[in-house]
């Protein structure tokens, strides 16, 4: 794998997909359909998926591709693969809240090693470089011209005053009860994979998820967080969250800065 080329391609495809998404987001109206699992899908999901999938297959034809919007890809048994959520946070998109992202990642031997998370409405983009370190880019987000970049890293948390980020659309009593075990200085809510990125930049220390997610929801954010020195572990036994599981479904998990003293469930 040429990781410099991977970084270039993932970044470019994320930006181009983001442009398509924003065209639809800013329109007066857009089509919303319901998938078999009753989750919503929009024309923006489908347009972004078509663009990203075509670009990845052209650039990396020998690597398996798993993408949320192509159900036939979910039957694969793979441990090394590219994985895509072309529009993570569809509910945020539909409600025009802006906390949606384009997620593209590479999983190697069951672990996300490279990824890009682009939030076009928020104008924030995070990705791993050729050696796996994570950075945030600012500027105009031109597909072929990299703007100003800053390497990011988790902060050293104060366990007596933690910053916690939780889901905006999937907050529940179980999550609040778990967070209640910690000494929390402040809490924030965010949608989609941006929660991983807030831990990666040191804007938060802890992100627990006690709810259903799929690997395409988490892989890119997981890669960005790990490239910034963070960790993502299973909720039940605090072992690393792995990928390539049957059906690509995740257990509950905790994303955190290494200095956080984790509580049991």
From TrEMBL:
InterPro entries: CysQ, CysQ/Inositol_MonoPase, Inositol_monophosphatase-like, Inositol_monophosphatase_CS. It is a peripheral membrane protein. This is 3'(2'),5'-bisphosphate nucleotidase CysQ. Substrate binds at residues 68, 87-90, 217. Belongs to the inositol monophosphatase superfamily. CysQ family. Mg(2+) 1 binds at residues 68, 85, 87. Mg(2+) 2 binds at residues 85, 88, 217. GO terms for molecular function: 3'(2'),5'-bisphosphate nucleotidase activity. Keywords: Cell inner membrane, Cell membrane, Hydrolase, Magnesium, Membrane, Metal-binding. Its EC number is 3.1.3.7. Converts adenosine-3',5'-bisphosphate (PAP) to AMP. The keyword Membrane applies. It is an enzyme of class 3 (hydrolase). Coiled coil: none annotated. It comes from the Bacteria. Its cofactor is Mg(2+). It is found in: Cell inner membrane. The gene is cysQ. It catalyses: adenosine 3',5'-bisphosphate + H2O = AMP + phosphate.
């Amino acid at each position: 794998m040429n990781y410099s080329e991977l970084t270039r391609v993932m970044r470019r495809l994320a930006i181009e997909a983001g442009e398509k998404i924003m065209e639809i987001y800013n329109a007066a109206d857009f089509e919303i359909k319901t998938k078999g699992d009753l989750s919503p899908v929009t024309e923006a999901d489908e347009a972004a998926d078509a663009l990203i999938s075509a670009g990845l297959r052209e650039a990396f034809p020998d690597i398996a591709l798993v993408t949320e919007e192509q159900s036939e890809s979910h039957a694969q048994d793979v441990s090394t693969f590219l994985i895509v959520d072309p529009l993570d946070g569809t509910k945020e998109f539909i409600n025009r809240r802006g906390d949606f992202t384009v997620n593209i990642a590479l999983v190697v031997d069951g672990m996300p090693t490279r990824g890009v998370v682009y939030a076009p409405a928020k104008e924030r983009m995070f990705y791993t470089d050729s050696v796996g370190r994570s950075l945030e880019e600012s500027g105009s987000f031109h597909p072929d011209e990299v703007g100003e970049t800053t390497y990011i890293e988790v902060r050293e948390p104060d366990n007596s005053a933690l910053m916690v980020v939780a889901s905006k659309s999937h907050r529940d009593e179980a999550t609040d009860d778990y967070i209640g075990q910690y000494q929390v200085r402040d809490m924030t809510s965010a949608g989609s994979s941006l929660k991983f990125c807030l831990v990666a930049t040191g804007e938060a220390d802890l992100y627990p998820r006690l709810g259903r997610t799929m690997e395409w929801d988490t892989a890119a954010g997981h890669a960005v967080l790990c490239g910034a020195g963070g960790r993502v572990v299973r909720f039940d036994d605090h072992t690393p969250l792995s990928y390539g599981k049957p059906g690509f479904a995740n257990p509950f998990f905790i994303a955190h800065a290494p200095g956080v003293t984790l509580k049991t469930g």
